[in-house]
Amino acid sequence: MEWEVVIGLETHTQLRTKSKQFSGASITYGAQPNTQADEVSVALPGVLPVLNKQAVECAIKFGLAINADIPARSVFSRKNYFYPDLPKGYQISQFELPVVGKGAVTIQVPAVGKNAAYEKVINITRAHLEEDAGKSVHGAVEGMSGIDLNRAGTPLLEIVTEPDMRSAAEAVAYAKKLHELVQWIDICDGNMQEGSFRCDVNVSVRPKGQEKFGTRREIKNLNSFKFMTQAIEYETRWQIETLEDGGTIQQATVLFNPDTGETKAMRSKEEANDYRYFPDPDLLPLEVTAADKARVQATMQKSQNEEYLRYVNDLNMFPDDARAITSSRQIYNYFESVLAELRKIAVPTATQTQDNANAKSVANWVINTLGSYLNKTNLDISESPVRPEQLAKMLSKIFDNTISNNAAKQVFEAMWMGEGEADAIIEAKGLKQESDSGAIEAILDEVLKANPAMVEEFKAGKEKAFNALVGQAMKASKGKANPAQVNDLLKKKLAF
Amino acid sequence: MINGSLKNLSQMLAKKEISSVEMTQTFLDRINKYNPTINAYVALDANKTLAQAKAADVRIANGTAEPLTGIPFAQKDIFCAKGWQTTCGSKMLANFVAPYDAHVITQFDNAGAVNLGKTNMDEFAMGSSNETSYFGGVKNPWDFDRVPGGSSGGSAAAVAARLCAAATGTDTGGSIRQPASLCGFTGLKPTYGLVSRYGMIAFASSLDQAGPMAKSAEDCALMMNVMTGFDERDSTSLNRPKEDYTRGLGNMQGTQPLKGLRIGLPKEYFADGLDANVAKVVQEAIAEYRKLGAVTVDISLPNSQLSIPVYYVLAPAEASSNLSRYDGVRYGHRAAEYDDLMDMYMKSRAEGFGAEVKRRILIGTYVLSAGYYDAYYLKAQQIRRLIADDFTQAFKQCDVIMGPTAPSTAFKAGEKADDPVAMYLQDVYTIATNLAGLPGMSIPAGFSNGLPVGLQLMGNYFDEARMLDVAHAYQQVTDWHTLIPNLDKPNLVLPEGKV
User: Fold this and answer.
1) What CATH fold (topology level) applies to the domain B1-499?
2) For residue B494, is pLDDT > 70?
3) For residue B201, which of B88, B137, B309, B428 is within the disulfide window of CB 3.0 to 4.6 Å?
4) CB of B318 less than 8 A from some CB of A
5) Are B222 and B112 in contact (CB under 8 A)?
């Protein structure tokens, strides 16, 4: 029998706010335990929650970014359960009426094997605001468990999809797209190691062609795309094998063990909860007006897709480069900074066409050259030792013919190693290219005189001989002659 | 001095007839003498109290005194007060010292008032007799065999016994008004949202409201000026311009100061279940109001008989969630021995909570459970709306509603302790205003068999100033609110000629 896997995701994105969802306590990661736990975080008797407006703005931004329905009124509810890291004995969340309603995200699923790449629309069911729990710390003190409430109350936006995905590849493509998007609109730092972006994945299988969904199991708390792929693939195989062996799937919450690569159901006791949701009487319903939406919209920059289309259509960039640059706000900001710096030091004669051609070249430098250095050293673009203004200065030296592309690679390497600015490096390494036409002509005259045979071959129609002559000239200039000029001048000389 | 109005006390301080330290010491001496019997206070700290009095004397000397500066108040032990034991009447919090101040405490501190101590109360404000307190019952100053009412029983006894100039209370279903009725003084539950709930230990968040418990409407008005006001730390706090609640009191002079006032008399409040003597006192008070120029209108609050069942779904539902934080993990009572986490939770909560609190947690957990939510919680919310709508209709016909505060006078300790439903019926006339979020008030209107009887006033939203005027007008022509029990001969002394 042929099986089909059905996948839906619930993603917890930690919002980039100054303070907690319902109090003024800081949410900086990595602080000493409980130093960011104020009286609200500790749930002292008598404390009350006050909604963080910045978190609401983040939610509205997300709603706008996915063209979602943003209802005029949403409601905070209490999800009641006991756990040591849940200080109030309930989590404030949104249940029946979430802040963001139905929307959609378009994903690009990459080619796998013989399957070509394709686009797919993933429907978003809802996104709602809630607060994170604290952490239990085991083993810090012998025989005791500690509670760290620094994270308690951290604002989260939980984004829930429809069961629209049909493979691990689609699920990961969606997760990656969402990861890009929340960073692009600057509502989440995207740091998966620190838990800023975590996914719960609902997986079920059904015989291909069957309309009814199978029973799903929920894989909790995946914080890497690699684990997500492994977990979904393992879970899918397990469900299919179970059914083919005549078994049935019980609805369950499962955990993925990265060491074994397996998923395993949690003890049923841990999940047998009736959360007794009810509207939190300490908080008024959240009202979002058209004016609120317009105000947030005004603060939002162009969407990834708008910028992608501008790069491809107006700047004539390669789609892959344009996609890579718009994949993250940081790369985009870096790239745009280089362009802006370049404009500041632009050659007066530069035309729009020239500018566009430059952009294409800048993209190539940022994505390919800088990208490979970053990859090798495992650095984030924000940590790049070569700053946008430095790169811009160096690129301007290519564009004004001071150095060749090849020489620029040496300059970049030196800048990366912290050897200083482009000008000084060019000077120190003697990388300036020869652009004095008199000097190049002199070299060419020498080359023509020394290679009469090649000249004859060219005149006899052998195009190859032209390139050979260029090569000789470059060699004679020790690689410093401007190749374009060499080409132009040689053509003129041979025309006689 | 102990019978002086807040205004009198303030004038005495201003004229330097007495210092705040001396005034405070007088009350502390009375507390030392009578509190061991009455048990109105659960926490006293003379050093802290007198330090505040000294600071108040400095303010009075340097001319920065406000109307309540230097006057000693009692604070219900439901308000967190920094450095003070704050127990909410529970073993669960018997060892809890609050590290921060409730908004109400801050307001009194800023006004220069002196905190005499924390008053006894029903555990987590759940009760109508103060008998559910972990720290023992409170004696009704009029008859030591009887209860003071609840849940603000300690504050009530302290006001009636003149163990403070005035006190704070909180009212979720009648916890200011019913004890005011049973102990014979003036208590006001404001419109929901007027007084910040920040730092006030939650029982049922959508119903809880703090208010003044004092000797007169005028005193309540002065306290309202201090207690009310927007607080951004409470999302349900209302952002309204500050009001002077004393502004109309001066107009309550002459023979018919209430001329044209329409008093609504809900027929449901004078039906079965009301003690005949209480009914008689209430009718006499209303007759007095007619003399003051008011007219009475018969009205109906048809859904008010559903108040108690609705309340005993909603309040426990909220309480079951509000009280989840008392889990023995971070503060409060933790069982000495336990096997694992679940055992720790169960033992700590079983030991830390009393029977009434457990009963309400059970009810609340049940009505919120999957499968029961719609039938109980949701249905109760719908009826709550109907109850509020009744009042909206009624206030088209009248300006203020009057009736009894409680169905009877103070009952004997132990009399209803084993009958929760009989106890719940104590609040039959007060709960509807909590459900509707409306202000309600109880003023002394006479006696029945030597025990005080309260008249309840219910007003429209934000109509506290008018209610205080109406109460004040009555207190200008009657002296019920000036009568005090004889603490040295309780049970015997019926005010002369007032039996």
Assistant:
1) Amidase signature (AS) enzymes (3.90.1300)
2) no
3) B88
4) yes
5) no
Active-site residue, B76 included: yes
DSSP B112-135: T-EEEEEEP-SGGG--SSSTT-TT
Instruction: Look at chain A and count its residues.
Output: 496
The pLDDT of residue B499 is 43
Mean pLDDT on B306-312:
97
Q: Which helix (H) or strand (E) is A475 found in, with range?
A: helix A463-476
Q: Last residue of a domain, which of A382, A400, A429?
A: A429
Are A62 and A27 contained in the same domain?
A: yes
DSSP run (H or E) holding B287? helix B276-291
Are residues A445 and A407 located together in one domain of the fold? no
What six digits make up the tokens of B15? 């004229």
**Could you give the angle at which helices A304-313 and A168-184 cross, rounded to 10 degrees?**
90
H or E element in which residue A217 lies: strand A217-222
Q: Which of A42, A44, A88 to mutate to test the interface with B (most CBs of B within 10 A)?
A: A44
**Same domain assignment for residues A316 and A385:** yes
Residue A296 falls inside a structural domain: no
Beta-strand (E) ranges in A38-89? 73-74, 77-80
What's the gap in Å between the CA of A304 and the closest CA on chain B? 37
- Residue B190 CB coordination number (10 Å): 27
The CATH number given to whatever domain includes residue A455 is 1.10.10.410
Same-domain check for residues A260 and A137: yes
- What is the C-alpha separation between A228 and A234, in angstroms, rounded? 10
Percent of chain B's residues with pLDDT above 90: 95
B304 catalytically annotated: no
Least confident of A62-76, A212-226, A474-488, B19-33: A474-488
Let me know: does A126 contact A100? Beta carbons within 8 Å.
yes
Our count of domains for chain A comes to 3
> Taking a contact as any Cβ pair under 8 Å apart, which residues of chain B between 56 and 75 contact chain A?
none
Let me know: does B465 contact B224? Beta carbons within 8 Å: no
Which distant-in-sequence residues (6+ apart) come within 8 Å of A339 by Cβ? A358, A359, A362, A392
B175 is catalytic: yes
| Token pair 């103070």: residue | B410
pLDDT of B492 higher than 80: no
Torsion of CA B204, B323, A73, A11, to 10 degrees: 180
A306/A417 same-domain check = yes
Task: For residues A390 and A347, state if they share a domain.
Answer: yes
| Domain range for A459 | 437-495
Residue A348 confidence (pLDDT) above 70:
no
Nearest to A282 among B88, B235, B323 (CB): B235
One domain, residues A447 and A323:
no
Question: By the CB < 8 Å criterion, does B324 face chain A?
Answer: yes
Same domain, A204 and A249: yes
Q: Which of B152, B175, B181, B307 is catalytic?
A: B175
Which residues in A have their CB inside 8 Å of a CB on B? 39, 42-51, 78, 80, 82, 84, 87-90, 147, 274, 276-278, 281-284
Asked which of A230, A265, A291 is the last residue of a domain, the reply is A291
Question: Of the listed B10, B151, B304, B348, which one is catalytic?
Answer: B151
- Using DSSP, state whether B349 is helix, strand or coil: helix
Strands (E), B261-379: 262-266, 295-299
Q: Is B152 exposed, middle or buried (0-12, 13-18, 19+ CB in 10 A)?
A: buried
